[in-house]
DNA sequence: TGTATGACCCTGA
DNA sequence: CTCAGGGCCATAC
């Protein structure tokens, strides 16, 4: 573990913490806001290894186009969907409904 | 020291 | 909608 990668994880966790309740952001977007453009995969990794004590709002991070990144059959899929709905985020077929989300420019850029 | 695998993304066909 | 292909790179084996 290098000092550098450690700093990257910190930056990512900070960016995730900055997502307001009721809003979602994508892996790629979080990477950008953490100053790590193009490193969406690292965001997934960062969430996976995040200490539980941080209590991050990981459920607000979704894949491109608003899709939940977990398999629909997984426990985590159900948990993420439950958490998002409890914050008022509408979902259909494992996908966030755009109107329910406060605009997040890059995530919804594709008309 | 290589290869494989991911809580990913994007473009093009 | 699906599929392929290229980018990304920390970890696991």
Quick synopsis:
With 111 residues, the chain is mostly helical.
Describe the model.
The chain is mainly alpha-helical. It has one domain: Winged helix-like DNA-binding domain superfamily/Winged helix DNA-binding domain (Arc Repressor Mutant, subunit A), CATH 1.10.10.10. Helix content is 40%, strand content 7%. The chain contains four helices and four strands. The strands form two sheets. A two-stranded parallel ribbon has the order 1-2. It has a two-stranded antiparallel sheet with strand order 3-4. The longest helix has 15 residues. The radius of gyration is 13 Å and the shape is globular. The C terminus is likely disordered. It binds a DNA duplex (13 and 13 nucleotides) through helix 2, helix 3 and strand 2.
Morphology call:
globular
The strand order across the widest sheet is 1-2
The residue fraction in helices comes out at 25-40%
Query: What is the total number of structural domains?
Result: 1
Ranges where pLDDT stays below 50 over 5 or more residues in a row are: 106-111
CATH topology name: Arc Repressor Mutant, subunit A
């Amino acid at each position: 573990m290098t000092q550098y990668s450690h700093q990257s994880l910190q930056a990512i966790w900070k960016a995730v913490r900055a997502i307001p309740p009721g809003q979602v952001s994508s892996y790629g977007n979080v990477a950008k806001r953490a100053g790590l453009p193009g490193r969406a995969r690292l965001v997934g990794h960062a969430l996976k290894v995040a200490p539980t004590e941080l209590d991050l709002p990981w459920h607000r991070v979704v894949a491109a186009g608003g899709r939940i990144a977990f398999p629909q059959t997984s426990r985590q899929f159900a948990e993420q969907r439950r958490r998002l709905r409890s914050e008022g985020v509408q979902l259909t077929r494992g996908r966030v409904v755009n109107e329910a989300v406060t605009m997040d420019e890059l995530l919804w850029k594709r008309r």
